[in-house]
Amino acid sequence: MRSFLPLALVTVAACSSSPQPAPTASPAPTGSPAATAAPTTSPAPSPAALASEKLAADTPKTTAAGNTFIAPSGWTMTVRGQATILEAPEAGNHIVLVDVKAKDADAALALAWAAYGQEPKWPLKTTLDAPDKDGWTRIRFYDYQTSPNEKRDVGVNVRFANDMWTVIIYDMAQAVGEKRASQTGLIYGRLLPKGRERESFAGKTANPLDQARIAELGKFVEAAQQKLGVPGVSIGLVQGGKVVFAGGFGVRELGKKTPVDADTKYIIASNTKALTTLMLAKLVDEKKLGWETTATSLLPSFKLGDADTTSRVLVKHLICACTGLPRQDLEWLFQWRGVTPEGAMTTLGTMQPTSKFGELFQYSNPLAAAAGFIGGHVVFPKLDLGRAYDEAMRTLVFEPLGMKSATFDFKRGQTGNYAVAHAPDVDGKPAKAVGVVNEAVIPVRPAGGAWSTVNDVLRYVQMELAEGKLPDGKQYISKEPLLARRAPQVALNRDASYGMGLMVDKKWGVTVVHHGGDMIGFHSDMMWLPEHGVGAVVLTNGDPGWLIRTIFQRKLLEVLFNGRPEADAEITTMGKMFFDQLAADRKLLTIPADAAESAKLAAHYTNAALGDVKVSRAGGATTFDFGEWKGEVASRKNPDGSISFLTITPGMTGLEFVVGSGEKKRTLTIRDAQHEYVFDEK
């Protein structure tokens, strides 16, 4: 994720299978019917190309030095000397692979820019070192400070192998970077040194999770929790049909001693999606609908902003991330009080696809929510959409599986044994997060609104591993509709695919079915190895808990298959990178916000899609009030001279509003990659 991109903007997302290119190159959610498309052009390299090829399919290629990678379908590859330039279908957006001989990483960086034919015009914000991986050593990231009005991310990754440096330059418009995140992940994920093969556990038998191996996993989690400042982590492990561990590390809330355990309730965020598709699978099993049934035949009011796409959406497409609808999370994150599921569905009807049907992985939470609401409507057509969904989940999923604590009721979720959301403050210190914003998921709850526990989610994982059977041997659901949810609907990268609310990853030679979830201060993952009868659940109550949930999968595989010890170093280094970036961004901020710049702001702004922003000042601080929540903002002068105001409330740190002026009124602009929203002075 971008260093100051708030986690709220990747809420209930879980695309952890696609490797992130560089600190600045992560995808962000996209806009709304009131938004305008972001431009995607930049100057192309000037020297004449020696060889150029447009790829008709994902194609194995090599760099000038023989390092292997996959060039994505639809991209154009140009070879010029030591530089291999990959251009996205949207002209002017490049990933460049350059092999050079140099004395060190900095020298390699300079040579690579020259080979690309560009001069980096942006200030260098951070330089971050990363652990050795996949045969690469001396890995270093360079993060450039672009101006928000450029709508562009630029970052460089330098790495060493076979006595040569390989430099990867990421130079792309934010809109293109988000839209084609799975394709950029394809390039980075399969980039290996010449002669190197990725470690594989294919054909190996999983070790028993005995006391020593469980202790090793526990040590990893506890160390990660402490290094990252995450107050609490609960985990559970299943092997051979039995729970072999369920417990917790740390506390429910900072400043209090009550520990987390396997019965502590957390928001499980996008792990809700798999439970939603399980409800749909039950309806398929009962022949109340089919995966190939059109959505409009079940709910005639179902609608997307594109009529052609609407007509072709089948039940399986509602939650496949394959319809071309990108993220539009800002709309439900900014305005949720008084919004009903019916209202959320109306907003969905204004959302436009930005890629062709089935072409690219693009993750839409509102569309995933529609899947649950349509399923609930089939079961309980006389109830409103929200109550119908809740009742369908209770009767078809939670009660049959014995998930006694699972609920969509936030009041019930936050009673008794429950975890509180946390996030670093603007100075990197652990703090309580602005948890009220998590209520924004309630109108779209099938996409990520469930509260649950490790013990509850373990029951679900056990059922998946048993291919539909419950612990008592009863067949809860037929195997065919259950497993259909794992069938690939769209590629995440060369090694992984997205099905229906589930990812299937074969990166290390074994099949891992999983999904993750992220809400403000809550990060979770569930995973299972169907061929080995092993499963795990990880729930956390603090940022950057997404590092724990994603890297835990690697640690589990290391323990199961005696893999190379990479996870411990990775969690340490990735944590350092996160906090180093946070510190680098903090240095650019003025807190309290610059008084002279704050005085130029209007008192009240409005946007048709996102609502109102009211500006107030007290005690030197400037506050933005969004209605549902409010918080102090910092100011920042950008390299191009523009002024930004950024929220600094823990959990919502980094919402960026760029100051502008229209012909008659002052404006604030916020962007989320593929679209932008302009707030006009009211």
UniProtKB/TrEMBL annotation:
Low complexity bias: start-end ranges: 27-52
Domain of life: Bacteria
InterPro entries: AmpC-like (IPR050491), Beta-lactam-related (IPR001466), Beta-lactam/transpept-like (IPR012338)
Molecular function per GO: hydrolase activity
Alphabetical list of PROSITE patterns matching this protein: PROKAR_LIPOPROTEIN
Cleavable signal peptide: 1-21
Protein name: Serine hydrolase
